[in-house]
Design brief:
Layout: H1 24-33, E1 48-51, H2 63-82, E2 87-90, H3 97-109, H4 115-118, H5 120-145, H6 160-175, E3 179-189, E4 194-196, E5 201-215, E6 228-232, E7 243-246, E8 260-263, E9 268-274, E10 286-289, H7 295-304, H8 330-344, E11 347-360, E12 370-377, H9 379-391, E13 396-398, H10 402-410, E14 416-417, E15 419-420, E16 431-433, E17 439-440, E18 460-462, E19 466-467, H11 469-473, H12 476-479, H13 488-493, E20 498-502, H14 506-521, E21 528-532, E22 536-537, E23 540-541, H15 553-559, H16 561-569, H17 582-608, H18 627-648, H19 652-675, H20 684-702, H21 707-721, H22 743-765, E24 774-780, H23 789-796, E25 798-802, E26 809-813, E27 816-820, H24 826-852, H25 856-859, H26 862-888
Helix pairs in contact: 2-16, 9-10, 9-14, 15-16, 16-17, 17-19, 17-20, 17-21, 18-19, 18-20, 18-22, 19-20, 20-21, 22-23, 24-26
């Protein structure tokens, strides 16, 4: 494929600030059109494969997407691509099932239209119009974020190929006995008129009334027999009670197990049964059993062979089976029952109770458990292999503590209801015969059935329900690669490498992909799962259903994609939640502008010293002789090694902190300043080559997080200096390899940097005019900086000498006493020294505790132990010198 040259930059390097809007769209278009994001089919290297956690087609992206897609995933994709791995970062979108239907229904409601008025066919046309509108918007926003997705392979879960995959998935599970249809209790949403799974339940705290109700004995009991009193928050369901349960070890009730009581309001005789699911501490220890309207009661009922009575229907209305309560809705039914209990003298007392109630997480409607005939997936068959895959290390969850969460849920998993009573989604490939009640599930390659396979009647109909969204998205790692066909892509790219997503969908999606990958492919779908934290608004996660979503578009337009990506990740601990703040965005933009201005300076020097690049390119090590140049190159190698280690270890927040420390704290603040005097003398060639080389390395290291800024600068740098390889873009350029470091030189300059920073702090605290030259004296263990006094003076605008004693502001670093000519009252300086001493003692104590920690000296690497011992010595010296200085002052 012929690659067009990069776009002509609309940015002038005379501009003092980086303007993202001038380059982002053109650069992304060039990257995409050049095919940089599509892995070469003929590359034999092991690929890096990562699937985009398909966003719902329900509106724009939000900051949570920006964090995952731009902050973490694209960082990984660009890093692995630069490491020479054929990288497939697969794009796609999800049809979103219930939430998408709710969104479109809400839009229709604004026009006074319901889906029932439209009818199923026309409503689905409206759904497709919504999809056709928002899919391109979402894809545009992914491009705005800079996500290096392979756009030659876009996918959507309702495409014909995916519909075929879902049909095959259902039929194969059914053939193996993993799918069954049965009357079981489900969560029912009265608003959305559909079932939903345990994972879609949210619990909220609410204060209700706890009613204590007496259940009369069905038969005469001996005098003194205590009454049976049951505590409940749902008196409207009493009319559906089929038993009273107690814990088998509860001494209060043991003697009454097997006896019968009368259900208030309907006078039904029911037994007292014993079951370990009863909590003896709740209420009186006696639990009313209503299998038709409570999950725990249903399970107790199944164990004891109890009948199921349903007294509330799908609309939330009390059914004829409710007897005296039939007719009103469940809330009115509750009030009616309370009045009847009060009138009959069976309402013993009422207490307020604050408890957690279940609501549908999509709309907040209070859950109504109902027993309905649904399709279920047997989890006792699919879960064990998925548990084993994590337990034996074939799949690693990052952070590691998420594995405990995973095991806890997976080992207590219930069967999964996959029917949904909505219109938008994958149709269930099952037909029912009206004549003989036969259930017909066709062979996977067979057409839709026209007749009953048992009685040959043509009076059959397809299940009107659709499948749970997660039932289809669980196939994502292999359905996107052509499954169920055995395609070249499936052979090449399955199993994948990493799955990155929020920890809140570990069970919704990640666990199901693991189960279904093992079931259908016989292999794990990925070997690493990185679970990032949530971007929060206050203490609440961002959610479209909660109407607190913030679009990343406005931030990209104001700050640029790079600054947003950087602000979302920098400094965030692995897996931790975060909040995006104005300070973070401003800091990210300031860092981008700092790198921009370093680059402007370097490019200006390159232009003025073109002879330095005759036969030499920016990305070639310059092999300098000067100490400062050798130091910054050694520190560059340290930055390469550290960045590589941190990205490989999924420590992305630390990776950006470390890079900023190097680029801003060492390259900008020190080497650039040290190089300036050299650019006008015999060492100019060495200095400019070093500047260009370190800039080239820095751009490569930062590219995965800030692709637009780094590409803009790199193209200009290489245009001036050439490049040692043929890669036309940073996107496909090699990741740097760390060279051998000069640790002794690094240590010397580390001391030098500490002294410079200490002098600068003394000047600032003293309120000195930045242009005023001052006198500085150094004493103590100054061997490391003796040959760098002039450089210290240049960087601090001071005259530096080696001298003991004297007056003035003082501090201590690395056992070096630093004294600035008197610039403040002694009392102020003494107060600062006391504060310095307090901090120094804290740091010294930490060193002592670490080295005294059992096993540290034996188990830690030798170099780490030696480093800590050196640090201990420095901290002891600092405390000693600070104490001596304060004692001398009478402090």
């Amino acid at each position: 494929m012929t690659i067009e040259g990069p776009p002509q930059s609309a940015l002038d390097f005379a501009e003092k600030n980086f303007r993202p809007v001038a380059v982002e769209a053109d650069l992304y278009r060039w990257w995409e059109q050049s095919g940089f994001f599509t892995p070469a089919a003929d590359n034999r290297a092991k690929p890096f494969v990562m699937m985009l956690p398909l966003p719902n087609v329900t509106g724009d992206l939000h900051l949570g997407h920006a964090l995952g897609f731009g902050g973490y995933e694209d960082l990984m994709a660009r890093y692995h691509r630069m490491r020479g791995e054929p990288t497939l970062y697969m794009p796609g979108t999800d049809h979103a099932g219930i939430i998408a239907q709710v969104v479109v229904e809400n839009e229709l409601a604004k026009e006074g239209i319901t889906r029932q008025q439209l009818g199923r066919e026309k409503f689905l046309e409206e759904m497709w119009r919504w999809m056709d509108h928002y899919r391109p918007r979402i894809e545009k926003q992914l491009r705005m974020l800079g996500c290096s997705l392979d756009w030659s392979r876009p996918h959507f879960t309702m495409e014909p190929a995916h519909q075929r995959a879902v049909r095959t998935h259902f039929i194969r599970l059914h053939e193996k006995g993993h799918l069954y249809r049965a009357d079981r209790i489900v969560h029912w949403c009265l608003r959305d008129q559909t079932t939903y799974s345990d994972l879609e339940v949210r619990h909220i705290e609410r204060t209700d009334t706890l009613y204590y109700v007496q259940y009369p004995w069905a038969d005469p009991m001996p005098p003194g027999t205590p009454p049976v009193i049951v505590a409940t928050t749902r008196p409207e369901t009493i009319v559906a009670d089929v038993a009273v349960a107690v814990h088998p070890e509860d001494a209060r009730w043991k003697a009454f197990v097997g006896k019968e009581v009368l259900v208030p309001g309907v006078e039904r005789r029911v037994k007292i049964i014993a079951d370990e699911a009863v909590d003896p501490a709740f209420g009186t220890g006696a639990l009313k059993i209503t299998p038709g309207h409570d999950q725990t009661d249903f399970e107790i009922g199944q164990r004891h062979g109890l009948p199921v009575l349903s007294v509330i229907d799908k609309r939330g209305m009390m059914t004829p089976a409710a007897g005296p309560l039939a007719g009103p809705d469940r809330e009115a039914g509750r009030k009616m029952m309370v009045e009847k209990l009060r009138a009959s003298g069976l309402l013993v007392k009422e207490d307020p109770i604050t408890h957690a109630i279940a609501v549908h997480d999509r709309c907040g409607t209070v859950d109504e458990p109902l027993v309905l005939k649904q399709w279920w997936v047997r989890m006792d068959r699919l879960a064990p292999p998925a548990i084993a895959a994590v337990r034996d290390g074939r799949i690693t969850l990052v952070p590691k503590y998420q594995e405990k969460v995973y095991f806890n849920w997976m080992e207590n998993i219930r069967d999964w209801p996959v029917s949904r009573q909505i219109w938008w989604g994958h149709s269930i490939p099952a037909w029912y015969c009206r004549d003989c009640d036969n259930v017909i599930v066709p062979d996977e390659d067979a057409p839709d059935p026209m007749r009953c396979t048992r009685c040959r009647s043509d009076d059959i109909y397809q299940d009107p329900d659709v499948l749970d969204t997660w039932f289809s998205s669980g196939l994502w790692p292999f359905s996107t690669l052509g499954w169920p066909d055995q395609t070249p892509d499936l052979k090449r790219y399955y199993p994948g490498s990493v799955l990155e997503t929020g920890y809140d969908i570990l069970f919704f999606w990640v666990a199901r992909m693991i189960m279904l990958g093992l079931e259908h492919m016989g292999e794990i779908p990925f070997d690493r799962v990185y679970l990032h934290g949530l971007v929060r608004v206050g203490s609440v996660k961002m959610s479209k259903s909660l109407h607190n979503v913030v679009s990343p578009v406005e931030f990209i337009e104001e700050y640029g994609a790079d600054a947003l990506r950087y602000a979302l990740v920098q400094g965030i601990a692995m897996g931790a939640d975060s909040q995006l703040s104005q300070n973070k965005l401003d800091h990210a933009r300031n860092f981008a502008n700092k790198l921009w201005n370093i680059s402007r300076f370097v490019l200006k020097q390159v232009d003025e010293h073109q002879e330095a690049f005759q036969g030499h390119t920016a990305d070639e090590p310059p092999d300098p002789q000067g100490e400062a140049a050798r130091w910054i190159i050694s520190r560059t190698d340290a930055a390469v090694a550290e960045a590589t280690r941190l990205v490989d270890g999924y420590l992305f927040g630390e990776y950006l902190v470390a890079l900023e420390s190097f680029i801003w704290g060492e390259l900008a603040d020190f080497y650039v300043e040290l190089a300036k005097p050299l650019l006008h003398g015999p060492h100019a060639t060495e200095a400019v080559r070093t500047l260009a080389y370190v800039l080239d390395r820095s751009l490569r290291l930062l590219h995965p997080s800030m692709p637009f800024l780094t590409e803009t600068i790199a193209l200009q740098l290489w245009k001036r200096t050439g490049k040692s390889d043929s890669a036309p873009s940073l996107v496909v350029s090699p990741w740097p390899v760390a060279g051998e470091r000069d640790l002794a030189l690094e240590e010397r300059f580390s001391a030098f940097i500490d002294v410079v920073r200490a002098v600068r702090n003394l000047r600032q605290e003293g309120g000195l005019d930045p242009s005023a030259r001052v006198k500085v004296s150094l004493a103590g263990e100054t061997a490391a900086v003796r040959d760098l006094l002039s450089q210290i003076g240049d960087l601090t605008h001071s005259e530096v000498t080696l001298a003991e004693g004297g007056d003035g502001a003082a501090t201590v670093v690395r056992a070096i006493e630093i004294r600035l000519a008197a610039v403040r009252e002694q009392g102020q300086d003494d107060a600062r020294l006391r504060k310095d001493l307090e901090e120094a003692r804290v740091m010294l104590q930490r060193s002592r505790e670490l080295l005294a920690k059992p096993g540290f000296a034996d188990k830690a690497p030798k170099e780490v132990v030696e480093k800590e011992k050196t640090k201990l010595k420095e901290r002891e010296d600092r405390v000693r010198l600070l104490e001596a200085e304060l004692k001398k002052r009478g402090g």
